[in-house]
Amino acid sequence: MTYFVYILYIVAFSCFIYGLMGLTGPKTAVRGNQIAAVGMAIAIIGTLLLIRNTYAINWVLIIGGLAIGVILGVPPAKKTKMTAMPQLVALFNGLGGGTVALIALAEFISSKGFSDFRLDQQPTVAVVVGSLFGAIIGSISFWGSLVAFLKLQEVLNKKVEKFFVSNARLFQVANIVLLIVAVAIAIYIGVKAKPGEGTSVWWMVALLVVSGVLGLFVVLPIGGADMPVVISLLNALTGLSAAAAGIALNNTAMIVAGMIVGASGTILTNLMATAMNRSIPAIVFGSFGGGGGGGGAATATGGAVKATSAADAAIQMAYANQVIVVPGYGLAVAQAQHTVKEMADLLEDKGVEVKYAIHPVAGRMPGHMNVLLAEADVAYDAMKEMDDINGEFNRTDVTIVIGANDVTNPAARNDPGSPIHGMPILNVDQSRSVIVLKRSMSSGYAGIDNPLFTAEQTSMLFGDAKKSVASVIEELKAL
């Protein structure tokens, strides 16, 4: 039976890897998710078979826990709107880290403070080290992800958020101290892990508390502009903590699955940081932006904002050869993806070529805009990544920016003193004409001015994105 379980694990790992490969493209992403889910189901079945004798009494509890997880997990996953999907991902990711922290605590309690092991045996050392590592990283991931969820959901008290952002340097010092304390406690627990000795459970509780505070203090000062990278980083940490828990439990499935998540999350984090031209340490220790786009006015000195109407916008686009749509989080908030698709269909019926420019960090998580547009049946081939579309802006008649801000800010390219200088952006300002749809002149996540809004070729169409696009549609139908 043991060999049969290992065969199931190999099948499960293959599904994980093949499913992950599917996530590299929007056309295969859904199938990739389904294959990975099948792999996880196989891994769970294999684990249940493996422990059928050792933990036979707890089988009912295990099945009950699985049932509770399904009951609590499926409804929000099905009902959550795409605009809130980043929050859901952050929350689910945090629960994974919290689970690992609880596993570490359970291992500590069941072994009476790591006092009933012989440390000259390698598996036992692995249990102690894996549990302590999982406790630290899992707790950091849980509390950090919880803060990310509150930030993205915009329910975190703004005064609290502003306090942490404005005192980021102070909390950087506190984080170093907390990390040293956490490592010191872990070393003390490990040294005391001897037969008949061990430590009190309060030492493990202290380790979890210190690590949890560290997770809070790391994420709270990070501004909203960096939140997509933070989510990816926390996801990688959860994967590593799961792998550590797998070592402690001697569970091959957890080790491999955790390492896959940790490795892929690390690669994605690096790619996201590169897309913002920022190093990961700079994001963790020196973030910019205070969150939700509620900063000052996004006007730039030396220019005036020119307002336009739906009728003028419709005329400009109807007589263009090519129109590029630049979606941002404002489009997601307004749930305007279906309306934008309808507008694009009308333009294409008039012979206008329509493309969509997707910045790697547009929205609030990697791929957010791609999934949102795919939900509205936008053709995958029409969605162009930044590197593929940037060369086309200078020969584009009209670019319509819907709810995007920082990813179109030319200050990143032209102003060495800007906090986002060097960050790769969509070259929207090179278009012959730019129409920006925004509710107001509020700034983006970075909280800085955007000279694009006062550029000579730019006009602003104020209002809710969905209603504004609907007005443009009516005007297009009238032409």
From TrEMBL:
It is a multi-pass membrane protein. It is an enzyme of class 7 (translocase). It comes from Gordonia jinhuaensis. The transhydrogenation between NADH and NADP is coupled to respiration and ATP hydrolysis and functions as a proton pump across the membrane. It comes from the Bacteria. Belongs to the PNT beta subunit family. It catalyses: NAD(+) + NADPH + H(+)(in) = NADH + NADP(+) + H(+)(out). The chain crosses the membrane at residues 6-23, 35-51, 57-76, 88-106, 126-150, 170-189, 201-222, 229-249, 255-273. It is found in: Cell inner membrane. Its EC number is 7.1.1.1. Keywords: Cell inner membrane, Cell membrane, Membrane, NAD, NADP, Translocase, Transmembrane, Transmembrane helix. Coiled coil: none annotated. One of its GO terms (molecular function) is proton-translocating NAD(P)+ transhydrogenase activity. Residues 7-474 form the NADP transhydrogenase beta-like domain. Its main location: membrane. This is NAD(P) transhydrogenase subunit beta. One of its GO terms (cellular component) is plasma membrane.
